[in-house]
Amino acid sequence: MLTSGSRKLDKAHLVELARQMASLMKAGVEVVLCTSGAIAAGKEHLGYPELPDTMASKQLLAAVGQSQLILAWSQLFSIYGLHVGQLLLTRADLHDRERYLNARDSLNALLANGIIPIINENDAVATTEIKVGDNDNLSARAALLCDADMLILLTDQKGLFDADPRSDPNAKLITEVANIDDSLRMLAGGAVSGLGTGGMATKLEAADIARRAGVEVVIASGHHKDVIQKVVCSTPVGTHFTALENPLESRKQWILAGPATRGQIKLDPGAVAAVTDKGKSLLSKGITEINGQFQRGDTVELVDITGKVCAKGMSRYSSKDLSLIAGKHSDSIELVLGYDYGDAVVHRNDMVVL
């Protein structure tokens, strides 16, 4: 979609997309951009070299193209006085708990400072073949990573049709989807440009991932006038997928059904009340005892002074760290440890009260 069907990045189209995103940022809407185009940019920058169809060639093109791609976006957003920050991720970064938390912390720090995070698959160091649709699926997981309200998947089609619009002139746009089933998946086609890595089938897969976590999804044409702003303003554009459940509840269900707890954090009465009655995060000041050995990102039980479990959540600090900061004020964490991962030991968004 970023090449507009040509062999190189369509800079005029990129600046139009940047304009729309910049307008949203100025209006107070947080924007995260998950972009494809690294390999296409690499081919363009190197003058379309004749390379063998190997994994090493793809990694070479991605390595060269990624710098060109981020440079292009940086220059375009600078027109509107905005800065960008690059996050190169792999699926492993989102599956490993500690790396997941680190990625989320980086992303949230960028957003908190008005910087647009630009996310892409780290193709240059991929250990398995670059798969079709990785950027689509990565965008869905990025939406979960940052607790997004909406995921917009831009493509070269107006949305999902009831037939292939490239061959059937009577094909009709499906404007609303409440259920994704096998019949709907059969309607999805593949990429036609030969430069990208995603088609409608992978966008449908990404939509299913996101909507199951409570994220609204819209698949629309990237060339539709003011498409991003219209989607955000709920103007009917493309194909809209209804979210299945609230994102927070989805994350709580994952915590409940996730791996067995690795340890316990004992809370004083004030901390128990703050967590269970007031919906607050757990702070180090309210911790009286640490039981078990666990790492940052592990799931732990929060118990009261009698040992009764009152909540379950993901710890942002290891048991070793917590043994040093238990009972201390949050503003002394960095002084004690030499670093900090934020004031919350267990953030309320990563916690389910039992």
Walk me through the structure.
This protein is an alpha/beta fold and about 350 residues long. The protein folds into two domains: about 10-245, 3-Layer(aba) Sandwich (Carbamate kinase), CATH 3.40.1160.10; about 250-354, PUA domain (Archaeosine Trna-guanine Transglycosylase, Chain: A, domain 4). The chain contains 13 helices and 14 strands. It has helices at about 10-25, 40-45, 55-80, 90-95, 95-110, 135-145, 180-185, 200-210, 225-230, 245-255, 270-275, 320-325, 335, and strands at about 35, 85-90, 115-120, 150-155, 175, 215-220, 240, 265, 280-285, 285-290, 300-305, 310-315, 345, 350-354. It is globular and about 70 Å long.
Provide a concise account of the structure shown:
Helix content is 39%, strand content 17%. It contains 13 helices and 14 strands. It has a five-stranded mixed β-sheet with strand order 10-8-11-12-14, sandwiched between helices. It has a four-stranded mixed β-sheet with strand order 4-6-7-5.
Could you tell me the CATH topology label of the largest domain.
Carbamate kinase
Strand order of the largest sheet: 10-8-11-12-14
Q: Helix and strand succession? A: HEHHEHHEHEEHHEHEHEHEEEEHHEE
The CATH class of the largest domain is: Alpha Beta
The description of the largest β-sheet is: 5 strands, mixed
Q: Roughly what fraction of the amino acids lie in strands?
A: 15-25%
The helix tally amounts to 13
Q: How many runs of DSSP E, i.e. beta strands?
A: 14
